[in-house]
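Write out this protein's structure.
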Amino acid sequence: MFTLKRPAWFPEANHRPVRYIVLTTAISFICLSLIVLICRAFLPDIGALVLATSMGAAAVLMFAAPASPLATSWAFVVGNLVSAVIGVTVFQWAGDVFWAGPLAVAASIFVMHFLRCQHPPGGATALFAVIGGGQVHQLGYLYVLAPIGINVFIFQMFVLGHRKILARMQQE
């Protein structure tokens, strides 16, 4: 009988229950969709900025890898908000120069280390404040509140609910 061997570089089988995978997938979809709907309803002036791109990466971490030290609520909330402030500050100080984006990410990493809130999507939040274009730049520090603050608040409510559901699933 012929059996196909798993290459050494390929990860081992996922031992999570299908119910967990479906729950994680559904919650991430509902969470991100609700952020878009709420922001479009209450913030029509920010157009395409209703959903911060870093929230996509955060969904993978916060919902699919909740045990990761990078997926704590502290890291998610503080990492994104601090990185947004840093990104806006760097752009306002340096302007549109080639090193402004890398500086915003590096400064975010530096500060996240000291605040113990390392959250990789925070780097994307800082980077987007610099490279996001005129619409983002016109927002200035309002970028920290909308879209980032609103995205983070709604997202965090889903994270808390998701973690309660996971705790119940583990008790069963």
